[in-house]
Amino acid sequence: SSELTQDPAVSVALGQTVRITCQGDSLRSYYASWYQQKPGQAPVLVIYGKNNRPSGIPDRFSGSSSGNTASLTITGAQAEDEADYYCNSRDSSGNHLPFGTGTKVTVL
Amino acid sequence: QVQLQESGPGLVKPSQTLSLTCTVSGGSISSGSYYWSWIRQPAGKGLEWIGRIYTSGSTNYNPSLKSRVTISVDTSKNQFSLKLSSVTAADTAVYYCARTKYYYGSGSPPRPYYYMDVWGKGTTVTVSS
Fold first, then answer.
1. B interface residues, A as partner, C-beta within 8 Å
2. Each residue of A69-106: pLDDT tens digit?
């Protein structure tokens, strides 16, 4: 079982804001990274560290962290943001990098 | 820029060993202080981290797979590899390789993080007789 827990699914109206959360004890000490995965494609890194975006990722994606919860926020969601999103971080017991359970984002 | 490509048999018989290779192009596998990871995803399910290797050869594995997994690196070929023994149908999945970076962080206390910034396209492995 994953040490990082995410809500299975969330929906957002086009142009509105959605926040995806990831909970786990290790997040008190480590930042998470976030990945977007569209059907049939490899995951793509969208946020890492405190709030860093790789080149090419729109600035509507942002990250934050508080206590044992990391969050990915999409401000002004677009149709192309519909995808599965996974968090990832080091676990609390060793040098392992489990993924969260994943959240399916639907843009209405 | 750096690209990764997985390769290996698409069909493996139960109880045999699954072997995959990830070839790194556009850069040296030995440079930049990166880890190199394997991840898999059964159809319709989430991502599962399998393990990682540093260019020094140091490895870490998912505890649930540790008894069956070996990850190795061949710097002369700019490749790293995955072996998973005693496979069953539950090992049927898309297998990805990814470049993984560790950043110690700043602040007091520092807050480290990892991220996987370059991924291969993935290769499908089916375990069936």
1. 37, 39, 46-49, 52, 60-63, 96, 100, 103, 105, 111-117, 119-122
2. 999 999 999 999 999 999 999 988 768 999 999 999 99
By the 8 A CB rule, do B38 and B52 touch?
A: yes
CA distances from B93 to A73, A87, B42, B63 (A): 30, 20, 4, 18
Residues of B in contact with A29 (CB under 8 A): 111-112
Q: What is the pLDDT of residues B42-82, one digit of tens each?
A: 999 999 999 999 988 999 999 999 999 999 999 999 999 99
- Whether chain B has a CB inside 8 Å of the CB on A64: the answer is no
A10 close to A72: Cβ distance less than 8 angstroms: no
Q: Which pair of structure tokens corresponds to residue B78?
A: 């700019």
